[in-house]
Design goal:
Length: 107
């Protein structure tokens, strides 16, 4: 069940359901985009590339992530333990301000 209160379940999935219907049932032209366009952190922790100052895919070639999707209860305030490309780990939230601060503190 998504996000707690079961009464909200259908509301929470209605937009995605409508989009899926338009794309698949109506056979509209569709461009499937890579996960890096809208990285859903609830399904996979990204990595930090200190040399480039970017949030990236956790696996090579470590493509930059365009949008960090923090959907769900507590995701915006969560502190993430990110692997660092080349070794090590860094703890940070994944909000825009937190990532900008991390970028400024990177060598």
């Amino acid at each position: 069940m998504l996000g707690g209160d079961p009464r909200n379940f259908y509301f929470q999935i209605s937009e995605q359901t409508a989009l899926n219907h338009a794309a698949w049932a109506l056979r509209e032209r569709t461009a499937l985009l890579p996960a890096t366009v809208n990285w859903f952190c609830g399904k996979g922790t990204p990595a930090w590339d200190a040399a480039r100052g970017l949030v990236v895919e956790p696996h090579p070639p470590h493509a930059p992530i365009g949008i960090v999707h923090l959907a769900g209860v507590g995701m915006k305030g969560r502190v993430w333990d990110l692997p660092v490309v080349g070794g090590g780990r860094v703890s940070t939230m994944l909000t825009r301000d937190a990532v900008l601060a991390l970028r400024q503190s990177s060598p």
